Amino acid sequence: MTDEIAARVARDAGVDDLVDILSERVDGPDLASLLLAVFRRRAARRTPSQVLERYQSDPFVRPSSLAPAALDAIVAAAVAALPPGFERLELSPVCPLGTSSVLGGISQDRVVATARGTEVVSDPTNVLALECAVRRRGDRTTTVRLAAAHRALRATPTEEPFTPHFGLFTLCTAARAGDEDSMLAEHVTFYARLLGDTSHDIDRSPRKQAYYSGATFGVSVDGVEIAEGGFVDWTSTLLGDAKERLLISGVGLDMLARLGGRTTARNR
Known about the structure:
By secondary structure, this protein is α+β, with helices and mostly antiparallel strands. The chain is built from eleven helices and nine strands. The longest helix has 18 residues, at 28-45.
């Protein structure tokens, strides 16, 4: 549907190959300059009332309905539950254009792109994978363990109480082939610590084999899956090294908050 709309816009503009010109024959910096000029002119026509109306009606920009204190408590519990050796990062709101589609195979239509050759982070594990690759490129002997709490944004239809943006606490471990069991044990231990005495189930049955490339797991509370993880081939692809292993996982902060924030933060 998106391509059909683009084709119609090109025909209406009298330039049938407009999409080809912009995507293939205009280089990145020039395209960014062109788009910035377009957005600058569009923004100049906006009135204060129009900005307010858009803020009030657009779910992409509305605040979360969840209490910040509840989310803060879950993040604090997640940080406390991290196994030794994990480094927490504060990610940028944006990442390189194509990060989610190139690494995760996610449709670019589900990502919010910017005029400057970047996209709003839609999956923090993609960005942590890039950071793992940068660090592993310089040193293959040291296991990289990274974690991040981040509010992701996706351009997908949602229904109340869910919103296009949501909080995630994500983990990535990058190491060599042969370390898979210990990598998996660390992630599973993290979720067991996070949930503490809360009744939960850890399911290691295969899932999303088109996405994952090895062992996977899910974590459920009251029958609701709140976390998922598994091995992916992202660092081996990024570094051109088949012996590289990357384990990713993440827990939905908003989902946990809606379930009552039942983590060790509540049980202590």
